[in-house]
Amino acid sequence: MGNCIHTMRSKHGNLVRDLSLDDASTKKIKESPQLEVAEQKTGKRRCVKIILTRKQLEQLLLKCPEGVSFKLPETYAELVVAAVEEVVVKDKSDDLNLSPLVKKPALAKRYRSLRDSCLKANNVDANFVTGMLQYFHYRNQLLGMHHLRIASKAGHLQGRYIYGALLMAIGRTEKGVRAINKLTDEKGIKAVENCIEDFQISLYRIDCNVKDIYVTSFIKMQPLHQCHPPEISTACSECYHFFLMTVVFEMMIGLN
Ligand SMILES: [Zn+2]
Q: Ligand 1 mean position to 227 CA, how many Å?
């Protein structure tokens, strides 16, 4: 096996980007990944499953969350592989650290089998990532909120913020405000500010859409007298919640 890493097309026709791993990690990932050539053909090509240990997976996610391709031995030379779409982890996956995917949930579209097995194991990160994908990418509000709620209840910081902010945005104002207040009380304003920044990053490669309800919520939450405009550093609770709603609204219309 050469030093793998070609540009290839996945079975869905998406380009798998060129990647380079440093020698050590390439070696480690390559050392023992088990390749299974599945019998079924997908169009003109077969798909290959890679079974990784927990450590190999974490390394893969850290080094190249956007995807990786493996060059197969000569006998399989005609196969084109998008390996990461078929990643399966040997070890238990309830507490697998999926932070690169939490940061940019859109990347998790490539890791479907991994997401499924982590969800089955009730992995908190996987619930967050799936919630984000369902809500924003697949536009399934119900399923999205379901998974975000699970992540939030389990104490996922980013999950708590986004779940609260979306509740406000979809008109569940009181519930959203309660969730945000609890988060702010427990973790502090700074933590919420970090969540806002991370929210922006997590929308990477995700197209947002503006729902009518966002506009309604935005108008509903606007304080009669905006006594604390965003440029000043203190706010009453009404102005604070309106500020958070404004941030979400601006992200959805693509202003940020
Ligand atoms: Zn105010």
A: 4
Q: What share of the chain is helix, strand, coil (3-state, %, to 5)?
A: 55, 10, 35
Helix axes 112-120, 124-132, angle to 10 degrees: 130
Q: In Å, how far are 55, 83, 202 from 4, measured between CA atoms? A: 20, 11, 29
Helix/strand/coil (H/E/C) assignment for every residue in 33-61: CEEEEEEEEECCEEEEEEEECHHHHHHHH
User: Which regions in the chain score pLDDT beneath 50?
Assistant: 1-30, 38-46, 77-84
Closest C-alpha among 103, 66, 63, 98 to residue 84: 66
The pTM score is 0.77
- What distance in angstroms lies between residue 222's CA and the mean position of ligand 1's atoms? 10
Give Rg (Cα) of the chain.
21
Question: Residue 233 gets which letter from DSSP?
Answer: S
Give pLDDT, residue 67: 66
- pLDDT for position 74: 54
What is the C-alpha to C-alpha distance for residues 133 and 109, in angstroms, rounded to an integer?
8
In a 13 Å sphere around the CA of 71, the CA atoms on its Cβ side amount to 12
CA of 230 to the centre of ligand 1 (A): 10
- C-alpha triplet 155, 108, 173: angle, nearest 5°: 45
Ligand 1 centroid distance, CA of 240 (Å): 7
Q: Which residues pair with 45 in a beta bridge?
A: 42
C-alpha 232 – ligand 1 centre gap (Å) = 10
Rounded Cα distance, 159 and 155, in Å: 8
